[in-house]
Amino acid sequence: MKSIGIIQAIYRYPVKSFQGERLTAVNIERYGLYGDRGYAFIDHTRSTDASRSNKKLNAKFVPKLLAYSSKYVADRPDNEFPPIQVTAPDGRVFQWDEELFEEIRAVVSPREISPRKYSPEHDDLLGVDEASILIATDVSLAELEKIIGVETDMRRFRPNFVIRYDEPQPFEEFDWIGKTVQIGGTKLEIYKKCHRCSMVNVDPDHNTVNPTFLKHIAKHLDACFGVYARVIRTGTVTVDDPVYLLD
């Protein structure tokens, strides 16, 4: 077991394709972070046949969604996710109700959408597309900034965990694929690189689009940044927890 760094930041996204919240601690469930993408919108425009049903609305197709932010509020119920609060780019505040649904329908028109609230009892990945947890490192972001020539915010890449890495070796997380990391009592299997899409071009604060980001990531990193992990053992992860790479 080798110590490789500490947890620098934790991010959770209550609503898929909205901005999320920064946490100091989070429970790790079988599907990933508790409540991560616990809410979503289903894009019926993408559901052209049975095999493509239940497609979730994605900011890759509607970048304006990233101008909305979401967070959990109130207490944690036993059998459902807590209520959420959504803040629009102009500061208006919504709950998960028809007023918000009409707002988002107007943003994504002419797409036909419907709201979906998941349950903690689900056996799937809730509103996540394919992987439980996305991990990135601070040294990789610093190197990417050198490549692109622009300072940027890690939130652009929507990780769940940011590791402050002990070694000055950018992109070494790609070598972790097939290995296990331990954070507190939690164990995660690193199993694939994260292939990036046009969402990385969207500034998380101003919603402006700069295609330079994906262009350079594609050119220098085969369009990959960060790694995906699946949960082997549940537990709790806290900021400043040490991260160990297991043999």
TrEMBL record:
Domain annotation MOSC: ranges: 105-246
Domain of life: Bacteria
PROSITE patterns for this protein: MOSC
Classification via InterPro entries: MoCF_Sase_C, MOCOS_middle, Pyrv_Knase-like_insert_dom_sf
Single GO MF annotation: catalytic activity
Xref: Pfam families: MOSC, MOSC_N
Protein name: MOSC domain-containing protein
